[in-house]
Amino acid sequence: SDEAAAPGAAANVPLDPDAQAGGDAPRPGQPGDLPDAAADALGLSAGPDGDPDGGGAPQATPPPFNQTRPRPLAVVVDNANPGYARLSGLTAASWIAEMPVEGGQTRLMPVFDVRTPGQVGPVRSLRDYFVHLAERTDAVLVHDGGSPGALIALQDATRPSLNAFQRGDLFSRAADGSPPYNLFSQGSALRGAIAGLGVSPNRLVEGFRPMEPQDEDEVERADEVDIVWGGVYRSGFVYQAAQDRYRWYRNGAPGVQADGQAILVDAVLIARIDSRQIPGDTEGRLFISVDAGGPATLLWRGTVQYGRWSADGGLRFTTEEGTEVALEALRTWAAFVPTAQTVELR
Q: Which string of b and e fits 125-158 if b means at least 16 CB within 10 Å?
């Protein structure tokens, strides 16, 4: 058009004197903005940290995670010789908890809510902190009795368990081993037994998947982690870049099942806990609380991230920036390591 268009007006479109300020506003900016705002500041996008000079992009939203899964089965299994040599079922676990017990050893609690294992075991006895962790992650416990404190905790728990003392039909002893290192069960039998426990057979798992740090200059990397649990036992993980997974090592040797399969996980959570011996306990049993969570380190895709762990409806990791990650989105090994024990990254 040869006619001079008013500020903001579209060519050949006459201004409507009654129209609200906006697409045909007589000057740039938002309706009702400050009349003395600087013209060169109008329309600038704020940075991710609220930079008034603008020019930044907002932080990316973590990818969501939402699945309906079967009710978790948490099976307490042995991790000390000679039981370790008979270890079965770990490769089917969604995540695995490793927790200290008396004598500087650990016991494992693989959790199954995606795949059902074949044979799983050797099934061992409970400690009370296994009860609390399973209850807070909505899992049904599978075990062979327990310590006095664990049996008291079971009475107070809101979620039932499958105890070999009461449900011997679900368990059998291998003929080529000796108690207590030869007790096993079958995943299909355990899954079928849940129907008679009065709990929902399914649960909704939701949250966010992890994200790699966006600033490459600030990314910390480590290919190995070594955990000293006590004078007779240490464990660790080595990142296998070609597979993008971590391999479990036990006392310096690759950790394997009885069938020779290697134990590989997507992520390793070093969950720090306070641990102390129960006064007067002649067996040296430990007091451990899992209710409040604690400091944590997450190893994932060769990176190291720091934050806090929690167990509230599932295993969770919250980054230092405040993003909560649902670790059920990954196949995770959660090592619950007392603060007094040494953890080395390299």
A: bbbbbbbbbbbbbbbbbbbbbbbebbbebbeebe
Distance between terminal CA atoms of the chain?
70
Q: Is the pTM of this model over 0.85?
A: no
Q: Which of 77, 67, 150, 151 is nearest to 113 (CA)?
A: 67
d(CA 86, CA 180): 12
Q: Do the Cβ atoms of 157 and 195 come closer than 8 Å?
A: no
Question: DSSP labels for 80-148?
Answer: STTGGGG-BSGGG-SEEEEEE-GGG-EEEEEEESSS--SEEB-B--B-HHHHHHHHHTTPEEEES-B-H
Question: Cα–Cα distances in Å, from 146 out to 14, 53, 106, 221?
Answer: 84, 62, 15, 40
* Nearest residue to 106 via CA among 77, 135, 67: 77
Class of residue 26 by CB neighbours under 10 A (exposed 0-12, middle 13-18, buried 19+): exposed
> What is the token pair recorded at 163?
């105890």
Write the burial class of residue 29 (CB in 10 Å: 0-12 exposed, 13-18 middle, 19+ buried): middle
Q: What is the pLDDT of residues 57-103, one digit of tens each?
A: 555 677 888 999 999 999 999 999 889 999 999 999 999 999 999 99
pLDDT attached to residue 18: 55
Nearest C-alpha neighbor of 88 from the set 261, 208, 334: 261
Q: Around Cβ 234, how many Cβ atoms within 10 Å? A: 17
205: β partners: 67
Chain center to CA of 288? 19
Express as a percent the part of the chain with pLDDT over 90.
71
231 CB-contact burial (10 Å; exposed 0-12 / middle 13-18 / buried 19+): exposed
Asked if residue 274 has pLDDT above 90, the reply is: yes
